[in-house]
Amino acid sequence: MLDLSCNEITRATLDSSFAQLTSLRQLDLSRNRIHYLFATDLQPLRHVPLDVLNLAETELSVVDDYALCAVSENLKFLSLTGNPLDPDNLARALAGYAPESLDSSSTDHNSSSPVCGTAAFPLVRLSVGEMSIGNLTTYMLSHYQHLLVLDATFSDLVWVEPDLFNHLTRLETLHLESGRLTVVMNLSAMKNLRRIYLQQNQLTEVVTLTGLYSLVFIDLSYNRISRVPAVWLDGFRHLQAINILFCFIRHIKCFTTASVCLSRGFAVQTQLNRSKFCLKWDLGIQHIRFPISPTDSMRPLPNYFGQLLLPDAVNDIMAIVTVLFIRCVRDLNVHTTELN
Fold this sequence. Notes:
This protein has a domain at 2-193: Leucine-rich repeat, LRR (right-handed beta-alpha superhelix). The protein is 11% helix and 19% strand. It has helices spanning 87-95, 138-141, 316-339; strands spanning 2-3, 26-28, 36-37, 52-54, 62-63, 77-79, 125-127, 135-136, 149-151, 159-160, 173-175, 195-197, 217-219, 227-228, 241-243, 251-252, 259-261, 268-272, 275-280, 287-289, 301-303, 306-308.
């Protein structure tokens, strides 16, 4: 590993001596002042099996279309987080080739510029967060078919092209939080998806999860979701947690073992398809209804506010009301003490 982060480097031009670093696997240039990444800067690394390239927060404003070609053959992790790149420039750089070179890439042997092929890149983790991207398109990312993690956090996303997910079928973790997304479609194309982060967007409906049976976690908090469909989570045996904090949910009627109606929510844990399952809500509660036969029982499960016991179905409502009453009395006592 070569760590050159947090320096005053203004050019990423590497001399020929880097070509001899045949054991180099990680190169960290983050938190420098590079500004421009030229097509020839990384050429000495063409035959170096580099796995990790960190260019986060390097004040990059321009990346040549071919700049990443030299390392694209072996690179597994690329971070461009926190750079003021123009969205079109970023798209061309990630595509790995200039649009006009597609027809001539296999025949142009006299060009001085490096030309990447159009085969799938081996990248498994890509971070393009904290940039003003706007849209994620097929043109930008379709060649990264081996991606396991895509991080576009704080990227001011407005739209994600649905067809893009048809090319990212191996993806396991998707970070699209803190944007302006109103809808996200075609998630079902990524059958291996395990974690979805969509908090702090402008979603008005829950996303469709059909067929994503490997899913273990989804975060939809801080959106504008008002209801949850009845069969939204049917068949999700591996699901461990859903975060729907600070949405506008007033009615939720779903799941196999319980139906819960909430007004600005509460933290409730129950069982889903005989596996542990957790729902996180925000403040307040209207009522909770468990249509469970009297013979069914639920083991005590921890929650985010301490210990909420869910006993047999006959007593569950009384248990929850008791907990809420104790909390209200405690808060009232605290308020009275402050006034005195």
